[in-house]
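Re: Re: ligand-bound prediction request (bumping)

Still looking for help on this. To restate: I need the protein modeled with zinc ion bound, output as structure tokens. Inputs repeated here so nobody has to scroll up.
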Amino acid sequence: MKIRILPSLLAADMGRLAEEIARVAASGADALHLDVMDGHFVPNLSFSPDTAALCRRCLPEGMELNTHLMITNPDAYAKRFVDKGSTTVQFHLELRETVNVRALAALVQAHKARVGLALNPETPAEVALPYLDCADEVLCMTVHPGYGGQAFIADVLPKIATLRRHAPALDIMVDGGINRETAEAAARAGANAFVAGSFLFAQADMAAAVADLRARCAAAFASRA
Ligand code: DX5
Ligand code: ZN
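Reply:
Sorry for the wait, this slipped through. Here it is.
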């Protein structure tokens, strides 16, 4: 499977956003991960559709803008993000009682974007299984969403393994507390896509760190029993 590395803009220097996006573009990463928070689904606020437009302007044409909606009403905003340049829209399955998951996935895909279904650390794999056929990727949160710089929750690893058993070819992404060691642990469990914020942005040489993370994850993913 393709190993994907996604720096998260949440950890960027906000005073130099355009330069930080350009740094990601030059790093060899597969995509930029954009965290959108509404102060309601999570207790924090972050980026808007205008930030997606800024990202689009600063990224090479064709580079993925992976947009993680931590908001209560993703159905009201998904198309706006796609119109501004998001090429993947991720929304949370904890909202499945109030958001029509299949209809929203179909809307995103109708606008030629990819769909990611996100799970908080406590949400079991069983919640995602009925929807795997309408997803391009599943995002397993390995911290409680809302803030960068938190510690990886290893209890999520068995869920990753369960999802991988059910979906051998699906992109399974982890997000939160990812560094060299936790990325390897997630890859051994079956993850093939890795969001990293504070770890990658703290590197003087982001390109070297992306290449190193990719090599470690590829080896760990291939070593699965
Ligand atoms: C957390 C966000 C993450 C965050 C990860 O709510 O979804 O994408 O940026 O940051 P680190 O890698 O610092 O844990
Ligand atoms: Zn995220």
